[in-house]
Design brief:
Blueprint (H helix, E strand, L loop, with lengths): L1 H16 L2 H21 L8 H10 L4 E4 L5 E4 L1 H24 L3 H16 L1
Helix pairs in contact: 1-2, 1-4, 3-4
């Protein structure tokens, strides 16, 4: 869940920094995420809950959003989901490298807690 959430934040930053062309997608994804953050990410969530978020995003209908100047821009939820999965893969790779730097003695307790939560 946390890695998917980190990926969403990275994509939102990417879209925001992408200029006016990405502004519509940024606003749409931000609103989609904010409306569902409590349901999919806040507090203790069951395993795979973030994947449920991605599925809802993937199944969302593409839409044309008009800008104040009257132009229409396509919001592509499938494309956003694809990009999120790519970013999530990058996040996982980065975190694996970071975790390799943590001495094993420090990670044993964390692994035990995570396993217990997943099995609950």
């Amino acid at each position: 869940n946390l890695c998917t959430q980190a990926s969403i934040h990275r994509l939102l930053r990417e879209l925001k920094e992408g200029g006016q062309d990405k502004e519509i997608s940024f606003n749409w994804l931000r609103n989609f995420y904010v409306d569902r953050v409590a349901e999919y990410f806040d507090g203790d969530q069951k395993y795979g809950r973030a994947d449920d978020f991605l599925e809802e995003l993937l199944l969302s209908t593409p839409s044309v959003v008009k800008t104040p100047d009257g132009k229409g821009h396509l919001v592509d939820p499938m494309g956003l989901t694809e990009r999120l999965i790519e970013i999530r893969s990058d996040v996982v790779d980065e975190w694996k490298i970071l975790m390799a730097l943590v001495p094993e003695a420090h990670s044993i307790g964390i692994r035990k807690v995570l396993l217990e939560k997943q099995m609950a």
